[in-house]
Amino acid sequence: MNGEFVGEAGDLLIFPSGSIVTLENRPVSATNYRATGIYFDHELIDEVFAGPPRASGSPGVQIVRQAASADYDVVEVTRQALDDDTLPLSVKRHRLLEPLVWLRHHGVHLPRRGEDQPWNKVRQLIETDISQPWRAEDVARHFAMSEASFRRWLAKSGPGFSQILLNTRLEKGLGMLQSTDTPISSIALECGFKTPSHFSEAFRKRFGLKPRSIRTAEF
């Protein structure tokens, strides 16, 4: 949704629920590299970001630069609350609200449950049977819309139907390449591509390398 971002060491990258991102890590040679991920429960987010939904919908990925967080370490505050087994659950929960309040104070917005964007709802439907030859008119019918209304509905959140369908299939294929020994030709068909060559070409355009490179990469 938001194009490309570059996060430097010490920055906070905030991914709202349902975000779809491709991450490329570029550690500086001869130095240590570590990224810490934190998941906040929907109930905590709903409490801190209460209020009417934003008219503009989900803000997508957001970044809080290191300079803004120099005096408050969100990661460390969260870690301390989680690791302190002496705290009663109610107190621990209260302390976990603090980092979210700090993020909101610095302009971060996280959508609450029920604020799913149209593209995310379509993606969830496609994922129920990713090999199916999905058509816009069929998906529109699922959401009880005409195809024209469906396309206008999607336009509110950015990507069109064809792009959502392609990205969903490619990201499923990437996951299968990384986590299974399934032949690439079988992955292509399981992800809804007509031929392995079509899958390979689309994969290269999206991720910058061919599917077989995922299997042959040395770390």
Which terms would index this structure?
2 strands; 3% strand; globular
Provide a short characterization of the protein structure.
This protein has 219 residues and is mostly helical. Helix content is 47%, strand content 3%.
Outline the structure in words.
The structure is a single chain. It is built from 10 helices and 2 strands, in the order E-H-E-H-H-H-H-H-H-H-H-H. It has helices at 42-48, 74-83, 89-105, 118-127, 136-142, 147-155, 161-179, 184-190, 196-207, 211-216; strands at residues 12-14, 62-64. The longest helix is centred in the last third of the chain and has 19 residues, at 161-179. The protein starts with 11 loop residues before the first strand and ends with a helix.
Measured by DSSP, the beta-strand proportion falls in: under 5%
Write the element-wise H/E pattern from the N-terminal end onward. Answer: EHEHHHHHHHHH
Unreliable residue stretches: none
**How are strands sequenced across the largest beta sheet?**
1-2
